[in-house]
Amino acid sequence: MDQYEIIYVGFPIWWYTCPTIINTFMESYDFKGKTVIPFATSGGSTIDKACKDLKASYPQINFKQGKLLNRATKKELEEFCGK
Ligand SMILES: Cc1cc2nc3c(=O)[nH]c(=O)nc-3n(C[C@H](O)[C@H](O)[C@H](O)COP(=O)(O)O)c2cc1C
């Protein structure tokens, strides 16, 4: 993980937030000073609560705006990744 500055973290929304295994992942590495960009799929919920919860749990991490990518097109994915 040391070689990465920007990390995209993807997950399905479970009970309006990210599954707890994502917390295990976030706590398994030193993300301090790195940029983390969340993305998710869902059955209809937004990603907002997941992003809020991640920011609250890991204030030392620089989170960028997360994005829900339900049925995203290739174009949307490329825009999201900055390509
Ligand atoms: C335990 C569990 C909880 C879920 N909670 C939500 C939820 O709160 N809101 C929602 O929109 N979808 C919820 N879902 C649906 C998943 O977000 C959805 O199935 C998933 O994003 C689809 O990704 P997949 O095609 O890779 O499985 C839940 C699914 C499971 C299994």
Largest sheet: 4 strands, parallel
Name the helicity range.
25-40%
Q: Count of helical segments?
A: 3
CATH architecture term: 3-Layer(aba) Sandwich
Order of helices and strands: EHEHEEH
Radius of gyration: 13 Å
Distinct small-molecule ligands in the complex: flavin mononucleotide
Number of strands: 4
Q: How many distinct domains?
A: 1
Q: Structural class, judged by helices and strands? A: alpha/beta
Question: What would you call the shape?
Answer: globular
Residue-averaged pLDDT = 96
How much of the residues is beta strand, in percent?
A: 15-25%
Low-confidence stretches: none
CATH superfamily assignment?
Flavodoxin domain
The fold-level CATH name is Rossmann fold
Question: At the first level of CATH, what is the class?
Answer: Alpha Beta
What is the distance, rounded to the nearest whole angstrom, between the alpha carbons of the first and last residues? Answer: 22 Å
Question: Topology, pairings included?
Answer:
Elements: E1 6-12, H1 20-26, E2 35-41, H2 48-57, E3 62-63, E4 67-68, H3 74-80
Parallel strand pairs: 1-2, 2-3, 2-4
The structure holds flavin mononucleotide.
Residues 12-16, 41-45 line the site of flavin mononucleotide (FMN).
